[in-house]
Design a protein that fits this description.
The complex is a heterodimer of chains A (410) and B (236).
Chain A (H helix, E strand, L loop, with lengths): L2 H14 L1 H39 L3 E6 L1 E3 L3 E3 L10 H7 L8 E16 L2 E10 L2 H5 L4 E4 L4 H6 L3 E4 L1 H8 L8 E4 L2 E9 L13 E5 H9 L9 E6 L5 H15 L10 E5 H44 L1 H9 L4 H37 L8 H28 L2 H6 L2
Parallel strand pairs in A: 5-10, 7-9
Antiparallel strand pairs in A: 1-11, 1-12, 2-3, 4-5, 4-11, 6-9, 7-10, 8-9
Chain B lengths: L6 E10 L6 E11 L4 E5 L6 H8 L7 E6 L2 E2 L5 H11 E4 L11 H12 L3 H14 L15 H13 L5 E5 L7 H16 L4 E5 L2 H4 L4 E6 L2 E2 L1 H10 L2
Parallel strand pairs in B: 3-8, 3-9, 6-7, 7-8
Antiparallel strand pairs in B: 1-2, 1-4, 4-5, 9-10
Classes of the chains: A alpha+beta (410), B alpha/beta (236).
Chain lengths: 410, 236
């Protein structure tokens, strides 16, 4: 019997039992759709995390006050003051002490309501140094960023994020204009370029002033020296690890601590963030893949069930075919082809539905999905494989039927 | 020795079951059927008639003895080889017609040729010829459900013919037919026999058996000695 005849016989058998075939296909396509969507969600999340990390730069360290310990949660500094100070930042910027650190930007932040005429806008007021622009990889679209003179003079100048600028000045050029915060008038000297791929709006909605201005005119008092965090840029990606060591050792010494284990600060690398995000993604993907695998297994058992029913129901047909000269191998092949045909149809429809879901779902939620071609081809192969794997037993049973027993059965 | 018999059974024994439940269905049957014969095998149920038919049809193998089909021993063949023998040398006609309901008549007739590996064009042509021989050339595109019982059995005969087998084995071919169709089908078998086909007919009806040129009666697992004597009378 040629393959063409085998396919024809299998297709006829599948089409003859329409409802049964449709239900089997349904079982498989649910599983395959689940696989496609799972892989799509996993890939989408991964790509999103990657782009966020890339935006922040790969050779950046972020020092935050407090630290998590295994026993007592977060350890803070004295009173409510941050444990990090401007002096820490200055020490870290010393190339003699920390040769692998290229630049340092201490950052202090507070929520602030800015006024321009009758317009109010609440944003994040950030005090930092001019190194921030380079470390965070930002650009200025109009005007300029902070200068060394601004820092020395504690100048009342301000750089606005693109969203902040448009909220306060609604389209007009803000450079040279005045913004009032808490009775102090600041002159806008520049506007930052928009960070388009960013998830968090705080990258585009902020107001930056010199840290010296921030600590003298805005905070004052005993907290004036403390900072919210310190951004450190290593010379390159390779020197990230030594830079981490240098920063840690230096801060432990400066803070008079006996070991890094008791640190009152924590240093995060983008890599550690990436790792954390990726591991969360992976957990999610594994869980979803598990669900998909279970539904595929159920689909496979469905195929086996249907094929067994089909064998039982068609004992006479099998007996007849054998009496007419069908060899056992031919019967087995016919049933295997039938099962894989069901798998193939289920796989194709499943991938189609999955692809449609990948396109449609982002319109309803903010989840981004990415259709993976290898996963789609793999899913189709898997569906056929399931058909074959779960069809082997029924097919073998069919081929072993003795033609007389088969013909006798009513 | 003359030309080899179409089928020759030599001291055939068949035992079913195991241990204490052993049933001896055939107890040394010897039978020779020559080219061009029309033999009826008769016998009450339980006589071993069906077992004999299965062995002649290569659907089953004997426990002892030899089965020679066109001169070659088939008793020891495995399932694979038996399938080939069934395909090439034997055409079956069953009581329940056993046509595949989802295929047209002509495709049912083509089926043995499919397993023989005949290419589609030749298959179609030979199936048409076989349908023509049974007088149903115009019914090829009908499905079995659209045909009468007699017509279905004639399609089944066409299917048995199409491989040009050495032997057509008809197992109670008229058992499910009304009297008019019975006459039809028996007439068809007789005419095939006149055209030179070797036919073995299994039946329990005396008047059906009367169509044959020889009647072999099976009783209690043996060929009844009287039956060969009767044969002269039975053959008109």
């Amino acid at each position: 019997m040629s393959w063409r005849d085998t396919y024809r016989a299998a297709a006829e058998a599948v089409l003859t039992h329409r409802l049964r075939s449709a239900l089997t296909v349904l079982g498989i396509l649910v599983g395959i759709t689940a696989v496609i969507l799972t892989v799509g969600i996993g890939n989408g999340a991964k790509a999103q995390v990657r782009s966020q990390i890339a935006e922040l730069g790969t050779n950046i360290l972020v020092v935050s006050p407090g630290s998590s310990t295994s026993t007592s949660g977060v350890r803070g500094g004295f009173g409510s003051a941050s444990t990090l100070t401007q002096q820490d930042a200055q020490a870290l910027a010393d190339h003699a002490v920390a040769p692998d650190i290229q630049a340092v930007a201490p950052v202090s932040e507070t929520s602030a309501s800015l006024h321009v005429g009758q317009t109010n806008w609440t944003t994040t007021l950030t005090g930092t140094t001019r190194a921030w622009e380079d470390i965070r990889g930002r650009q200025v679209t109009s005007g300029r960023f902070l200068s060394a003179e601004d820092e020395q003079d504690r100048a009342t100048v301000m750089v606005l994020g693109p969203d902040t600028a448009s909220e306060l000045f609604s389209g007009a050029n803000p450079v040279g204009q005045s913004v009032v915060y808490d009775g102090t008038t600041f002159q806008v000297v520049g506007v930052l370029a928009e960070l388009s791929s960013s998830e968090s709006s705080s990258n585009n909605d902020l107001a930056i002033v010199p840290l010296s201005t921030y600590s003298q005119r805005i905070v004052g008092g005993s907290n004036r020296n403390s900072v919210s965090s310190i951004y450190i840029k290593a010379n390159d990606a390779a020197s990230l690890s030594p830079a981490y060591q240098e920063a840690s050792t230096l801060l432990v010494n400066l803070h008079g601590l006996d070991s890094a284990a008791n640190a009152d600060f924590s240093i995060a690398t983008q890599e550690s963030l990436l790792k954390a995000a990726t591991s969360v993604d992976r957990t999610l993907t594994v869980m979803l893949a598990g669900i998909a695998a279970i539904s595929l297994l159920v689909g496979g058992i469905g195929v086996m069930n249907i094929m067994l029913v089909s064998v039982t129901e068609r004992i006479r047909e099998i007996g007849l075919r054998k009496a007419l000269g069908a060899r056992p191998g031919v019967i087995r092949r016919q049933f295997l082809v039938e099962a894989s045909l069901l798998g193939l149809v289920g796989g194709l429809i499943g991938v189609g539905l999955g692809a449609a879901g990948v396109v449609a779902i982002p319109h309803f939620t903010d989840t981004s999905l990415i259709l993976s071609l290898p996963a789609s081809l793999g899913a189709i192969a898997m569906a056929v494989g399931i058909g074959v794997a779960f069809g082997v037993y029924p097919a073998t049973r069919a081929s072993r039927l003795a033609p007389i027993d088969a013909l006798r059965s009513e | 020795m003359s030309a080899p018999a179409v089928i020759e059974l030599i001291d055939l024994g068949k035992t079913y079951g195991l241990g204490s439940l052993e049933v001896e269905a055939l107890k040394g049957v010897s039978l020779r059927i020559d080219q061009g014969e029309f033999v009826a095998i008769v016998g009450p149920s339980g006589s071993g008639k069906s077992t004999l038919m299965h062995i002649i049809g290569c659907l089953d193998v004997p426990t002892t003895g030899r089965v020679e089909l066109s001169g070659s021993d088939v008793a020891s063949l495995d399932e694979e080889r038996l399938a080939v023998v069934r395909n090439r040398h034997i055409g079956f006609v069953f009581q329940q017609f056993n046509l595949l309901a989802y295929m047209t008549a002509i495709r049912n007739v083509e089926l043995p040729l499919v397993y023989a590996g005949v290419d589609p064009a030749e298959r179609h042509e030979r199936a048409l010829r076989a349908l023509d021989q049974v007088g149903l050339a115009d019914r090829g595109q009908h499905k079995p459900g659209e045909l009468s019982g007699g017509q279905q059995q004639r399609v089944a005969v066409a299917r048995a013919l199409v491989t040009e087998p050495a032997l057509i084995l008809a197992d109670e071919p008229t058992g499910n037919l009304d009297s008019a169709s019975t006459v039809d089908v028996l007439e068809l078998l007789s005419s095939l026999n006149r055209a030179g086909r070797t036919i073995v007919l299994i039946t329990h009806e005396r008047d059906v058996a009367a169509r044959a040129s020889r009647v072999v009666e099976i009783l209690d697992g043996r060929v009844s000695p009287a039956s060969e004597l009767d044969a002269a009378g039975a053959a008109r």
